[in-house]
Amino acid sequence: MTIKKTLTLATAAAAIGLSGAALADSHGGDESKDQALVILTSDSLQTQGMAMILTRNMQMQGTDPNILLCDQAGDLAVEGYASDAPFKTPEMSEVDQMTPEAILKMLIKDGAQVDVCAIYLPNSEHQEGDLLEGVGVAAPGPMAEMMRDPSIPVYSF
């Protein structure tokens, strides 16, 4: 499958709210899952958007994503947060615009493990109760173990 076709599938699925589980089932989905660690720190809308699109694609292709949101990207995990503006891809019309936090919610709904960095809350105005349902606070030890595990690729944005 080409990158363009995969990206189009992800944005279309995101635009209509199709769950990754439904897509996996439609492609014979009972494969054994692998894991990936995605570390997102950027406050750039396009970087956040692309990180979420790629992570969503990995999830739809059978990967169990673990997402670590640090610095400004931690805001995506705060209940009620709204990006300044939605983004669009060439395959989408202006009506079908998405936000990184909307795709993050789809990832969570379909089983992604999402955590904010251990130092995010103490250095922000937010408390743990402000986080989206299903979002935790990363513990440095287990996160370091995941980062050191050669079977888990680490992607940083």
TrEMBL record:
Keywords: Signal
InterPro entries in UniProt: DsrEFH-like
Signal peptide annotation: 1-24
Classification via SUPFAM superfamilies: DsrEFH-like
Name under which the protein is recorded: Putative peroxiredoxin
Species classification: Bacteria, Pseudomonadati, Pseudomonadota, Gammaproteobacteria, Oceanospirillales
